[in-house]
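User: I'm putting together notes for a lab meeting next week and I want to include a structural view of one of the chains we've been expressing. I don't have a solved structure, so I'd like a prediction I can at least talk through. The sequence is below, exactly as it appears in our construct file.
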Amino acid sequence: MAKRYALFALLAGTLMIAAAYASAFLPGGAPGWSGWAMALGIPAVLVSVMVLGAARGERGVGRLVYPFAFSGLVLAAGFALALGLPANEAAGATLYLGLPLRAAIIIYGIGLFPIVVLPIAYALTFSEQTLNAGDLERVRLAGEEWARARAAAGAPSAETAPRPAGEAEAIHTGAAR
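Assistant: Thanks for the context. Below is the predicted structure for the 177-residue chain, given as structure tokens.
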């Protein structure tokens, strides 16, 4: 179910981004809504790709749903803030860690936030999101069945398949290209 929602969000986000880019070709330039379409489409695409990468069968993304939702909200809020704040940066404007407010929101909130939060979330859920012994056994059995099917069809195995010129020699001598 998580993959279905993620695919829908990926499609919707991609269409919003495409509409924002396409609107730049309208007479008179891009309308005001195009920035908002981009600001909402980018987080939708990013989060949906994370969900598609982390979803495992019926379990979905497990506890990663919370950091993914939080990341999507922070990204969308960051883009919305940067778009919604007035463009009043002047020579004497207050700087936040060396940047004007809107630039600081983009760099620190949108750029650095996922780099800090998401690896921690993945690390905390690593044992429940990775392959367990049962999964590895299913992969091993599927590989053996695939090899038996290839052998029955008369296809060469990976060990006996012809190699490109020079590759067999490099394997035997230990030389690398």
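A couple of points you could mention at the meeting. The CA atoms of residues 57 and 84 lie 39 Å apart. The mean pLDDT is 84.

User: Perfect, that's what I needed.
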